[in-house]
Amino acid sequence: MNNTLRLSLIPALLCLHAAAFAQTQDTNTVPSVVVTGEAPDQSRKDLEAEQARTPGAVTLLDRDQIAQRNVSTTADMLRFVPGVWSASSSGSDATFLSIRGSNLDAVDYDNSGVKLLQDGLPVTAADGNNHNRFVDPLSARHIVIARGANALTYGASTLGGAIDLISPTGLDSAPLEVSVNAGSFGQRQARVTAAGASGNVDGLLSLEAKDRDGYRGHNNQQRRAAYANGGWKLSDSVRTRFYLDYVKNDEELPGVLTRDEWRRDPRQAQAAAAAGHYQWNVETARVANKTTWDIDADSSVSIGFSYETQQLYHPIVQSPFFSLLIDTEQRNAGVSLRYQQRRGAHELLAGLNYGRTEVEGANYGNDGGRRTALATLVDNDAHATEAFLMDRWQFAPGWTAVYGAQAVSSTRQIRNVTVATGALRDPAADFDSINPRAGLIYQLAPQAEVFANVSRLYEAPTTYQMDDQEAGNNQTLDAMKGVSFEVGSRGRQALGRGHWHWEAALYYARIRDEILSVDDPTAPGTSLSANVGKTIHAGVEALAGASLPLGESGAHRIEPLLNLTLNHFRFDGDRRWGDKRLPAAPRYALRAEALYRNSSGFFAGPTLDVVGKRYADFANSYEIPSYTLWGLRAGYTTKAWEVYAEARNLADKDFIARHSVTAASSPNAAILSPGEPRSVYVGARMRF
């Protein structure tokens, strides 16, 4: 798609909805749904109002909620988010992430399928990959998880949706906060945050250090980070904020085991990983700005910019047949524009995202973590433009129609030169699509609603997937596309002298040309990618919790919380695989806890994880067994300080956290990453 056509998409979409704004009705307040938390701050209220105006599954988290337990990975952060399957292979930052069956194409590789953002600005590369890093969960004040097509308001064109981590500022933080954490397998983590405001200016600075020896051999991690932002209120209607981040994360990778090796000693490292000193070392620097202008009481516009560099040093394969060490620099640039206007019963949201990612460097041979012969020169380029327009129309008391469309135009270009022969491999392709969406919300009660939507799904391949194309020539992959249907409900209601809250969704998606990858048997550690004909992604997502007083005084209460996900991901009449299940995602996953809380601040209770069976291959011949884990957590919290202790896997059960994916796994395949054995963590947070 040429530049003229790209720019024409915006007025074309505006014209589609112009008629809706010709009719002006009396202004109605869109009700908000408060799902969790007490006395939320203004930013939380704004997020809850946005959630209530979305006809689909969106979950909100606060740092204060998740910081009362050990949160050292993205998987820990997402523990109580339905529809998500996330696990770390060794307790370190290298985490597998799948939402609604995304990223089942390349487990343990580029983590595509979910768009990550900080403060509404992209962290995910323009081609859709999250290979180099995740965002530190404890660096966020609020976290929004919009699943599947419900991420339209973020401009995300992904199967899994979007996760936006919103930074704390000098306006909503204590002047000084200190957090410490320590526990099993040599985990040590400390963070200090200073914040303040004066007149129209505020600022915040966080410094963090994390070290972990790990529960497996060759499993050490060391992370150092600094996060800063500063805001300036230029006038009553204009405000701007700058963000600066620096993260240096070095991890040893323990590799994968065979089933016999796992049973014999689940804490051992893969022999090749130790000998090849497999690592995932990333140094990141990021600068961003976001400026908002409140034009009047009913309209506003915001514009944001971000630029990030990521230096990757990644020894990943060493064998008698093939070795690989990736040494590249990735540069991400992004621009985001949002315009909102309320007119009568209509609320218009228009947006434009543009991102570009460049990757330059080389692939080398690997000898114990050291570069050897230069093998391939790498020069990849990706562009992505996402324009969207949405109208929220409260057309009758209690009823809101939400409809709109997204236009996507992106390019992928790869230039790999084999040094030994001078051969150039340069697949390139453009991907363009219009993705409509329509939904309804019905307000059952002031804090309860039901919703439904039908949406088009679309996701272009990453450059990693393009480079791994199964044919191995300049052929390219097709984009994944499909249609999803979703119904659900969320809310909060009184229950006697207490209350309960819930969110639930049922979705069904038919997808064509899904990109699925398997380990290359001739070069372990690399992948082969291809489009398959038809697949089905369907499931049930439910989160329910309550606060139930004990006795008349109100000083004691029980707070149960349950997160249940049921997955149905399968091929649909595939020529080779028929109707077999897709690998990697379990059939069901249940996370639960039941805490006793006292008005003094003390809390304690058991935790439970029940995870169903899953397959490691398309042939459904290698089954990963189900498992059940018990834990316990307790703590004490006040306005000025809090402490906690958490015990995991009290029965010390051996289980598989992650695994590689193959076409048809042999019984002795080395594909397993063991889960965390019995462990204990303690932490404290103090505010001054």
Written overview of the protein:
This protein starts with a helix and ends with a strand. By secondary structure, it is mainly β. It is globular. The chain has a 22-stranded antiparallel β-barrel. Strands 1-6-7-4-5 form a 5-stranded mixed sheet. Strands 2-3 form a two-stranded antiparallel ribbon. Mean pLDDT is 91; it is low at 1-40. The chain has a single domain (3-687), classed as Maltoporin, Chain A (Beta Barrel), CATH 2.40.170.20. Pfam families: Plug, TonB_dep_Rec_b-barrel.
CATH topology, anyone? Answer: Maltoporin, Chain A
> How many strands, what sense, and barrel or not for the largest sheet?
22 strands, antiparallel, barrel
CATH superfamily caption: TonB-dependent receptor, beta-barrel domain
Rg to the nearest angstrom? Answer: 24 Å
Protein name: TonB-dependent receptor
Keywords: Cell outer membrane, Ion transport, Iron, Iron transport, Membrane, Receptor, Signal, TonB box, Transmembrane, Transmembrane beta strand, Transport
Main location: membrane
Membrane topology: Multi-pass membrane protein
